[in-house]
Specification:
By secondary structure, this protein is mostly helical. It has one domain. Helices cover 70% and strands 0% of the residues. It is built from 6 helices and no strands. α1 packs across α5 and α3 packs antiparallel against α4. It starts with a helix and ends in a 14-residue tail after the last helix.
């Protein structure tokens, strides 16, 4: 069950990230405007696009989905903070659509990272629940 839920969240997050790549890599007007407001156009837009492309690939490969989820949390956190502190919730009259998509991606990546926490390099073994006795599980440290 958890594996299926993780897979659904991985696909949702990857699909949203992938959809935005076209706009970043083609230099669409709205994308240029957003990154200009942040003072990082064009290099910030291109770095964000490459980072998001890496997240998409990592999320869709089962062995790397935990890494993709953690990386996705970092990337999307930047977008959320940009909305909250620079851009505003609604961008160019979108009614907050981009912000809502960012929240959905954050939730999906957080869910995948939690479900697949044992697969996170270096810290996964500490995050994973450890069995105590038959039918009981210790909470992570």
């Amino acid at each position: 069950m958890a594996g299926a839920l993780s897979w659904v969240m991985q696909v949702i997050a990857a699909a949203i990230f992938a959809q935005t790549l076209f706009f970043k890599f083609t230099g669409a007007e709205e994308s240029r405007w957003i990154f200009s407001q942040l003072g990082v156009e064009p290099w910030g837009r291109l770095i964000a696009g490459v980072s998001e492309l890496a997240v998409v690939v990592l999320l869709l490969i089962p062995k790397t989905s935990a890494i993709g989820a953690v990386m996705g949390l970092g990337v999307i956190s930047g977008a959320i903070f940009s909305h909250l502190f620079v851009l505003g919730i609604a961008v160019k009259g979108d009614g907050g659509f981009l912000f809502v998509l960012a929240l959905i991606v954050f939730g999906c990546c957080a869910g995948v990272a939690w479900i697949r926490r044992a697969d996170i390099p270096f810290i996964g073994d500490r995050l994973a629940a450890r069995p105590l006795a038959a039918g009981t599980v210790a909470s992570p440290r």
